């Protein structure tokens, strides 16, 4: 296994995620029960789940699931899809297949830590930072300047975690074209796609824009079903998919059969689930707007363009790291401080924290947060 540093987010969550009274930094939308999901199934899929044989499954993924996934793309077939045990396995194996010693990658920051640390364990990496002073804008000229003759991958994540940024579709299309003309693989983390506040801002999927591009997605985030542990990569380069399959032989080999059937049910009901989840976020955002308006002297707040996380600025004197630790220890309210998202590649803000806006009934957590602040911290 490639030698990697501690995963800061998961280490922090190991300490607090299941012990804090108010998990206010969740990166997924409110989940549903197994019964609620099965209620969305057609007769055929329900029967498939109830009569499922618990044997090994295909390494590429259940053919029926891959067929459903391919239907989400304009230019992909089932043969252009490979499934994984969540998005993390997909990202890890993709970088190990795409990159080697002597190669170079470009990674946009801030981002999910492994999007940076896995490539860094393999080759040289250049970071390109979203600009917090320009609404987290991505400067395509900076991306172009970072590209070298040996660049093999440009890695992006929109809607972005943790900022919630969605760039313009024209810029995303230009990024794909820029990579294509240089023979670079655009690796696009699209796990929050479908949760844009303005559906008109939904980006095209990278796999539809380029045969070389890889679109990463998962049932965990926008659908709110992380317990299924089903992710996938869609890419029209089938030789690359074959290499990914061979790499998967060294990790999970195949996915859990029940999860694949349940993922198939969820993706067939995707429109219904996303409508529910967008409505939940839309109902929650005024609560967060009101909270941060009350404490405007302590925070700079901006709702996300998409996804279910935001990245406000903390203005207090003690700094965001101490603030977040005291908040969870004294009030039981869990947030993620900026140190979790620090980059080895670029300067990243040190005064931010991630807060989640996609869970049901956030009032209790916001109330505990407010009471602690009113008490003088």
From TrEMBL:
Q: What is a single Pfam family found in this protein's UniProt entry?
A: Aminotran_1_2
* Gene Ontology MF terms in the entry: pyridoxal phosphate binding; transaminase activity
Give all residue intervals belonging to the Aminotransferase class I/classII large domain. Answer: 54-357
The reply on keyword Transferase is: yes
Keywords annotated in UniProt: Aminotransferase, Transferase
Q: Does the keyword Transferase apply?
A: yes
Q: Which InterPro entries match?
A: Aminotransferase_I/II_large (IPR004839), PyrdxlP-dep_Trfase (IPR015424), PyrdxlP-dep_Trfase_major (IPR015421), PyrdxlP-dep_Trfase_small (IPR015422)
This chain belongs to the protein called Aspartate/methionine/tyrosine aminotransferase
Which organism is this entry from?
Nonomuraea pusilla
